[in-house]
Design a protein that fits this description.
Radius of gyration: 21 Å
Strand content: 25-35%
Number of helices: 11
Bound molecules: iron/sulfur cluster
Structural class: alpha/beta
Number of strands: 12
């Protein structure tokens, strides 16, 4: 069903990698929706499938990987004479990953910023040329117009001396300036969705705070949605309206940010939250690390994949039966601890 502000609807997405050692089920049946102007936080330890899920939305999965099942519906909205908007639904999974349509979406309607800007910028072209190239491709501008817009966009992301920075090469900028440039490049075409994959992990805390603030300001003024991928729960608490917690390719809990931080229901969400310092709850308790390690991706445990590490594991149930989806108010949890009516078992 389409809701008025719906932007992305992911249904039963599975992205698998076939390698010599076996099949890695990097994303294994993920479903969620994201509305316009909202921020969805995606959290979990390394290797839980967050980045592959985002790459699937952009159709940028590496050659060994393939979307084997599911849909990614993108709701493209077009204003008619500045009034009523018409909505066209595009299933991104059905597109040729090298085709015209996905290139129109990628970088134009959906943009991405990564942890390391050096991986997205070419070292041999100036920042200005690289931002201009996106504008020439997606906005049908000529070179002069595109360079002017590049300077404007750099100015909008708070870049000092943008008219000089356009002539710089990426290696001539500091980490924070490179990250601002990448955000400028991502925003230059006014995307409706920005996917930010650990965008501040490589930055010092002061620069990180500035970049997060900048993203919030830009979101408020441009109305874009953000999918914010991170292993840092402190950052996601700052940024997100809603959070999905992923473990071994699956969503284990989905809730609004306040409910998740106040009262996490899935044992994995609880463990993640116990492992970070909280300034709002001075409990005097020691921080805990999560028991055990993320299992080998070639041999995911049967039943609930978290059961070997779970302190609430119910033997004979959790190690045998895959947990069902339980809806508790507006929250969704996949865990045997809850009954279908949402009460504790
Ligand atoms: Fe723990 Fe069982 Fe819930 Fe999995 S289903 S998180 S093992 S209680």
């Amino acid at each position: 069903m389409t809701t008025p502000g719906q932007l992305i609807e992911v249904q039963g997405l599975k992205t698998f990698f076939k390698v010599r050692e076996g099949t890695v089920r990097a994303v294994n049946g993920v479903s969620f929706t994201l509305e316009r102007g909202r921020t969805l936080g995606v959290v979990g330890e390394s290797g839980c499938g967050k980045s592959v899920m985002a790459q699937s939305v952009m159709r940028l999965v590496e050659p060994a990987g393939k979307i084997v099942e599911g849909k990614i519906n993108f709701y493209r909205s077009a204003a008619q004479n500045g009034h009523e908007a018409t909505v066209e639904v595009v299933d991104i999974t059905s597109l040729d990953y090298r085709g015209v349509e996905i290139r129109r979406i990628r970088g134009g309607e959906i943009a991405m910023v990564f942890q390391d800007p050096m991986t997205s910028f070419s070292p041999v072209h100036t920042i200005g040329d690289q931002i201009a190239e996106a504008l020439i491709l997606h906005q049908d501008m000529d070179k002069k117009e595109a360079l002017e817009r590049a300077i404007e966009t750099l100015h909008r992301v708070g870049m000092p001396k943008p008219d000089r920075v356009v002539n710089n090469f990426p290696h001539q900028l500091s980490g924070g300036m490179r990250q601002r440039s990448m955000i400028a490049m991502a925003l230059s075409c006014n995307p409706s969705l920005l996917i930010a994959d650990e965008p501040t992990t490589a930055l010092d805390v002061t620069t990180e705070a500035q970049i997060l603030e900048l993203m919030k300001e830009l979101q408020a003024s441009l109305g874009m949605a953000i999918m914010f991928i991170t292993h840092n729960l402190g950052v996601v608490a700052e940024m997100a309206n809603e959070i999905i917690v992923m473990y071994l390719g699956k969503i284990v809990e989905r809730a609004d940010v306040v409910s998740l931080f106040d009262d996490p229901r899935h044992p994995y969400s609880r463990a993640l939250l116990r492992s970070i310092p909280r300034v709002d709850k001075d409990t005097g308790e020691r921080l805990e690390s999560i028991e055990g390690i993320v299992p080998d991706p070639y041999s995911i445990p049967q039943g609930c994949p978290f059961h070997p590490r779970c302190p609430s594991n119910i033997p004979g149930v959790c190690d045998v039966i895959e947990p069902p989806l339980v809806t508790i108010g507006a929250r969704q949890v996949y865990c045997h601890l809850y009954q279908q009516d949402g009460t504790a078992r």
